[in-house]
Design goal:
Distance between the termini: 55 Å
Helix content: 25-40%
Shape: elongated
Number of strands: 6
Number of helices: 3
Largest sheet: 4 strands, mixed
Order of helices and strands: EEHEEEHEH
Radius of gyration: 17 Å
Structural class: alpha+beta
Length: about 130
Amino acid sequence: MENNETFEYGQVKISDDVVIIIAGIATSEVKGVSTTRTGVTEGITGLFSKNTYSKGIKVEINENTVVLDIFINVEYGNKINEVAKNVQMKVKQEIETMTDLTVASVNVHVLNIVQEKEKQKELPETEIITD
């Protein structure tokens, strides 16, 4: 579904994918949200990887109102409720600022807790080149 708004010189259409990408980038910027992969559900794997911000986010747009479901992993040692609340506030602010849509709700689903050791396992190994 696309959001349509008519202006003096024509229409502006905002696709669901644009809203999803904004939400993904905003979520990845919140302290405590892990960018590691999870094997919980195939559709949720690769949460917020470098290549795509759209995995782990569902969006529904009706008229000019947005409802989001965001699936995250939280880094161990962070307060889960605080991280979820920060995701909600950041996503709402970014979507409303960038699109003029009204965010009715941001539902945050915490799938996993990730320790620092697990995060490092997910990082690709880099080659060291010496002369």
